[in-house]
Amino acid sequence: MADGSQPNYEAIRGRLEANELSESDLDAIADVSVDFLRALLRCFGENTCSIDEYEGEDGDLILNVTDGDLAVLIGRHGRVLESLQLMVTSVATRTLGFYYPVSVDIESYRERRKARIISLAHRAASKVHRNGGSVKLPVMNAYERRIAHIALREDDGVTTYSEGEDPNRYVVVAEVYDAAPFDEE
What we know:
Blueprint: H1 9-17, H2 23-43, E1 50-55, E2 61-66, H3 71-74, H4 79-96, E3 102-106, H5 109-131, E4 134-139, H6 142-152, E5 158-163, E6 170-175
Helix pairs in contact: 2-4, 5-6
């Protein structure tokens, strides 16, 4: 806070439960998350990164890190980024005394990945419409699989489901068969 005092996290928690968070409440939540994220970034030698904060579509706090050599922070298939997000969320939850959803993104990687998954799902659905049968998408984490399922839920010609065992689960896009009613005579 500007005067050096700590925010009253218990009061913020009450306003969160009543769905009455103010801008200053959101700023206090963001400050905790950003401070820890900056400390993590310093461990990777990133001292000059910019962190943009904004509210996501689902009411979560999104922290997008830019301006640095950040590819190592994304990692293969976003696994390092997932770990960073888990650490930031865990520390914020412990510090605040309550859970508030925080998403960490690096140079909008998550948005680009989301667009790729949606495109991949639609291409698989097109292939199923043309050829019938089913198409397996690549292995994805739970969040990415959810994106694929949601992308195709309005398509009445296909159905989606997940198969495999974690961490090797994937989405299957399959043809929907119109089962004609059994004709009894």
